[in-house]
Amino acid sequence: MLLRSLTALVLLSACTPSRGPSVAEGTPPPPIDPPGVGSGLCVESRDLREYVLALDAERAAARERALAAHAARVSQRRAVFLDPEPGVAASPGAERQVGGARYLLVGHFTARGEPSAEVALEGDRVRPLDERPRAHPVSLRVCGTGSCPGETGDAPAAAGDPRPLWVELAAGERSGPPLLLEYDSFWVRPDYDRPVRCDE
Predict the structure, then answer these.
(1) What is the pTM of this model?
(2) Is the separation of the CB atoms in 108 and 164 below 8 Å?
(3) Which pLDDT score is estimated for 13?
């Protein structure tokens, strides 16, 4: 009888999932195995930081592979805010001339410092980036205490309404429609072992 009880206990333990990293159902597995838990059955801050950096590097690599699939590369360019032309509702990829220079509309953004924008280059064709990464959370049991909203610093100051942002086209360059860029991106969703109550 005792042997039968011990056997049942071993089988139950083998079939019980551990409180480890998890991803949502239907989500592809992360490209890097999550760190193991320590003696406190949670991931230490140093291991968490290294894992976040590794996921960031994988995200950049996935982005480069998506660009290579289109035979495109990214160029960072200075940009300017130009007021809309009266009666013209321009969309990204539109072209206009101002003072003899040609400009490509890359999108609508708020003004924060000296503007710049990334564009995709396909030979002599310049295209705005329509970047849509597929974000997948990786849940980790993390050692420590979380923070309540508003405790991580002051909220950024409002920058005004979005305005059309344009980049200048060089001689010989052609404008093109937005380039749709899709790839998988993983991010850590921490589950702290010492939760904090934010309603007190």
Answers:
(1) 0.74
(2) yes
(3) 34
